[in-house]
Amino acid sequence: YLKLIEIMQKDSKDGSSKRKGQMMEVVGVDLGNLGRASLSLNGNVTITGNMIFQDQELVRSSLSQTQNTHLEFDQKQHLNIQGKIGDRITVSMDQDSERQFDWENNIRIAYDGLEDDIVQKIEAGNISLSLPSTKYVTFSGKNQGLFGIKSISKLGPIDITTIASIEKAKKEQEEYKGGAQSNTQQIRDVDWLKNRYFFIHPWFRNGVDTAVVQDLVIQQVSIPSFYPLRNGLHYIGNLVVKNFELYKSINTNEAGAVTGTAYINPLNPLDSAYIDDNETGNFIRLETGTNYVLSADLGYIRLRDMVMNEILGCSFVLEDRNTGDTVLVVGAAADSAGTNLSLMMLKPRNSHPNHPIWPLMFKNVYYLGTTQINQEGFEVKIINKRSTPESDRDRATSLPYITLFGLDSLDVNGVRQYDEIIDTQSGNILNMLNGELLIPSLHPFALSDSLQGGNTVEGLKDQLGSGVMYTSSVNSEVNGDNRFVIETKYSNQSSTINLGFMLVEGSEEVVQNNIVLKRGVDYQIDYFTGTIVLMGSAAEDPNADLKVRYDRHEIVSFDKKTIFGTRAQMDLGEKSFIGATALYYNQSIMNQKIEVGYEPTRNFIWDLNGRYEWELDGVTRFLDRLPVIETDKMTSVSVEGEIAQVLPNPNSINNASTGDPNGVAFIDDFEGSKRTTSPSIQRRFWKESSTPYYYDEDLGIFSGTFSQLNRGELFWYNPYIPVRTREIWPNQSTSVQAGNETTDVFVLRHRKRAHQKNVDNDSTWVGVTTSLYSGDYDQTQSKFFEIWLKGTRGKLTIDLGKISEDWDGNDVLNTEDIPEAGLTLGNGFLEDPEDTGLDGCFDEYENGWGGCLEQNSYQYYIDQGETELINTESDVDLNDPNGDNWNYDQGSQDYSKANGTEGNGTGSKIQEG
């Protein structure tokens, strides 16, 4: 059987691969003189279904609650249909159910006339309108995203285009004055770039000169410290990084993930000093060049994207660059089962200054706010905010701070002499591509006397702090350590323009310095993301003005926009013409209350335009006879003109109440200011309330709480069969489609208990409570409370605010989830011995007052005649003294036990919800 399936799958794949891209003719009819009619298609339809049955003994207390058995169907289809009737009519349809938006599906019907026919072409379905000769009718000269009918006719020398369509897109235009944008940015010294740069080993950060033993061979290690720079350069040691692999933790066990541990010291995983800091998890390997860049000589990495709450670890080998001998092996790859990955930790899940691996993160890199910065015009100043007045120079030495902080040691010619201009040519200081500034010190804004790796420049001693920004995670302490700001001025040239999502394909017009650019030659465009990438000479001029006109699909539009019109044009040679255009545009809106700026529109526009161009052959020959001058093109004169008029109706809905024919609009109808909080009326969201406060009307104060002994008997429910909506609101419109033919109601039934027969009615009480969502806690702006009631017995009081949930007033959390030995919380599972109800005891030990008996059973006290501790009134059920048992038969009208909490989770009938 399995072999047969394999053979069938193989044949299916082979057959589908042979037919891929080919159309299959499903209908073919010979129509005689009219030609042949055919219908061809290519595609597939996939239908999958599931029947889901939950084998649980759940009892529903409402007909509207979820059923146990249901069917789920999923249909996917991709169809490409091509039809043809004779030689003139074609039909095409491209439809895919997996496409996210309707406009990605296309249908088109076309009629092609003969050369001498008046009607040359008729198109229906997804169409476009192009008027390249006009400038005033549509600002891009073309309309895409239309659905309707278009015809092209010819009357002698006159070409006529007529259109009637619905517009499904919105026209937009963007202008960019110069491709380069000038910016000034200020970055505080405490805002260094975190979680981007990391040393892979302390040796490369601090430097080392020692000997190690590897495979019984003594190897010499000599690595200079990363800072300070020597003549603006980093010196490298005798070791080079090989076989480097970088891993990042993930929360799920996805494909390719391996289990491992990131150690502070992978050479001694059991080091007691760090045993609590090692972290285990699932890891995925990052790709070099894609996710990060490694400096194998200097021993650090730069991540493409910052890591936040992930563990970062690596494994690598250090080799002697001269001999190729292995000096140190750090970490180990996972075994064949994808486990036991051993890594050197570069970053813990939660990074903080007290973590032993904290020093491996760079703390001297600052992001300048943009990328691809032009070197021309780039300026950097470091300003002392605590000097009076603020200054970018040291008062004692008169040197600029960029010189004192090591950012200026060369002049523009590369001579080692400061010139008060940042050394833009030094890659160890600036990364112009990524927009990053590296100040050459491990802790540039801390004194070396206070913090290892601090700044050693003598001229900065009196102006630097102890480095709290590097040693504290308390925001107030870090912000209090702010002394300097880095001010940058730059212009960033970007060859990429982002217009936003879902552009209409083919609708764009890109104009640079009044020259229309060509797609594929001067730029590339991604219509879904709206990204334009300039290419070639178009991307080289940072001062060019750019104008982009385009159409954008509207995801949701309740407005209807229609276009009707015609264009007639007579060509007078190859480059001359005269034409006329008339278009009617109507935009209707769904709302009857018209808002200012969002009115319905009806516009009519007419346009006359023409161009005449003639060549002056005699002028060309005359110029060619002149000395020195030699023409390579024909001399010509061109005259072009256009006149257009719009007849607008900016608001086509008149004010009937005042007779104003000019339309009416609301500045604001304040509908958006309405805020509604709707507590649920579903039974399962309500619980018995705590004891309410008693309000003394004579004193006008809350003078105490009601007695627990005066709590009456109460049960609440939603009727199994909901109430018809029009029984509550007779004038409300209902329908099956709207799903509002029935309405759930919340019913409360209450009565006195037997022992309360002599208690005054005003002293007995019952109550239920529910919680609001946290976003609804603030009700200070609420003005009304609306509730619909049916019934005349009792007095209803509603309390809103912070209300206790201690229903029995014992100041103890009542829960069935019994804590295990030595713990304060349970295991989160309801087990058979725990399904006691909220009173905490089974029926045998209930006292009839809602509490529990400590030693003997309820029946014991009955037998002994000791009734002081128990309730023996006539309404007490000997089998359930506290009345907290759950019992309900699906569809029954008896809801008296529907809110019980004992036996509702582990009995023979389990409550749903």
TrEMBL record:
Query: Which residue stretches does the UniProt record annotate as biased composition, category Polar residues?
Result: 882-901
> Which first-to-last residue range defines the signal peptide?
none
Q: Where is this region: Disordered?
A: 874-913
User: What name does UniProt use for this protein?
Assistant: Cell surface protein SprA
Q: Which species?
A: marine metagenome
